[in-house]
Amino acid sequence: MKDNEAFEVLGEIKRMMEKSSRFQAVSGISIIVVGIYACIASVVTGYLLGLNDWLPFLPKVDEIRLNTPSRIRWAVLLAVALFLLSFLTVTLMSYLKAKRHHLRFVVDKRMLQMAFNFLLPLGIGALLCIALIIQGHYGLTSSIMLLFYGLALVNCQHYTYPALRFLGYGEIVLGLIDCFSIHHGLLFWFLGFGVFHILFGILYSLKYDRIK
User: Fold this and answer.
1) Is 147 in contact with 175 (CB distance < 8 Å)?
2) pLDDT for 34 beyond 50
3) The pLDDT of residue 124
């Protein structure tokens, strides 16, 4: 009996240490909001690029019209604006969640490690996309975004809730499918960054946002 009690105590200590070492303040609502941002950005991008085929029930065109400096500039600016807005939203809502649930929200070594593991693959993917756009190769940019974003999520899941890796796996699978699809990059972008975020954010909120 004493041995069982000792194992239970050790197990409880282990669970407490794992809980304290994770960044728990990520808000599920912020994940949903980022998905909504991405859906809106997809519609705006389709308009800016002159696309009318990114949803299956719309007529299909032959190529993306990124053939003017103005369109390239607006597309890049929109992507940067979406990233910054999403980052600010996640940070602010995570801070509010941490304050509400009395969780730690400090820029410590573990948070910096999480940021590095997330931003490293994401930054590499962004530079690769920029290089392809400059050279006029647009076909794989959406799949590269999805793939490297998925890798970034999987890469940093050890520093927060492990369930985050499932969103990463979903983005990777969608990105791989997108590699073999033609003329539907914006649709996959809409699904990966928009719909997947919204669905995962709902499940995440139900499971993790009610911290006691």
Assistant:
1) yes
2) yes
3) 93
d(CA 112, CA 182): 38
pLDDT band at 61, cuts 50/70/90? Answer: very low
CB distance 149 to 165 below 8 Å? no
Read off the tokens for 177: 């499918």
Residue 51 pLDDT: 64
Rounded to 5°, the CA angle 138-139-143 comes to 105
DSSP alpha helices (H): ranges in the chain? 2-21, 28-48, 69-101, 109-134, 141-156, 164-179, 185-189, 196-208
Evaluate whether 75 touches 66 at the Cβ level (below 8 Å): yes
CA atoms in the 13 A half-sphere facing the CB of 129: 21
Residue 96 has a pLDDT of 82
